[in-house]
Design goal:
With about 170 residues, the chain is mainly alpha-helical. The chain contains six helices and no strands. Helix 1 packs parallel to helix 4 and helix 3 runs antiparallel to helix 4. The longest helix is centred in the first third of the chain and has 28 residues. The protein is elongated.
């Protein structure tokens, strides 16, 4: 009896499998960055900080970040699918996507883990600028991916002002 091996012959099927792999990679990368935050909860230290009156309630962060992480993952997958269009700046867009994800993942340990408020404030400004750059370059690759990043940029802009204010109030 002859054994048959499974091979992907169809170019269309190969593209579909590569697209699925790209989406899965984006989702896993975003999930890894998001789960890192679970290791660094605000805790007692954060509760004792002096905060501005416009500081959001704690319960808002979970739903907002769930929406933003899902949006990031979808945008990353869309960028991967767009890789077939060589006339578009897909590689720079994907690189920026992963840079912003790294900056996003680093913020929680800096702020909540190490309590380095000044460095965390600088880092979140770098994140803000990177997310803004993502919004711009993603527009040239996939407009829906760009649209998914604008709420993220708005939230990180607000968070930047909040974290700088917390640093100033507690230094």
């Amino acid at each position: 009896m002859q054994e048959k091996s499974f091979t992907v012959q169809s170019p269309l099927l190969k593209k579909l499998l590569a697209d699925i792999l790209g989406f899965l990679t984006a989702f896993l990368a975003v999930a890894a960055a998001a789960s890192l935050g679970g290791f660094f909860s605000p805790g007692d230290w954060y509760r004792t900080l002096e905060k501005p009156t416009w500081n959001p309630p704690d319960w808002i962060f979970g739903p907002v970040w769930s929406f933003l992480y899902l949006s990031m993952a979808i945008a990353g997958g869309l960028l991967w699918v767009a890789r077939r269009h060589q006339e578009k700046p897909v590689i720079p867009a994907l690189l920026l996507f992963f840079v912003q994800l790294l900056l996003n993942a680093l913020w929680m340990p800096l702020f909540f883990g190490l309590h380095w408020m000044g460095i965390a404030a600088l880092e979140i400004v770098a994140l803000n600028l990177t997310v803004f750059a993502c919004c711009i370059i993603f527009w040239k690759v996939n407009r829906f991916a760009s649209a998914l990043f604008w709420p993220y940029w708005a939230w990180v802009t607000f968070a930047s002002v909040l974290k700088i204010t917390l640093y100033q109030m507690n230094s």
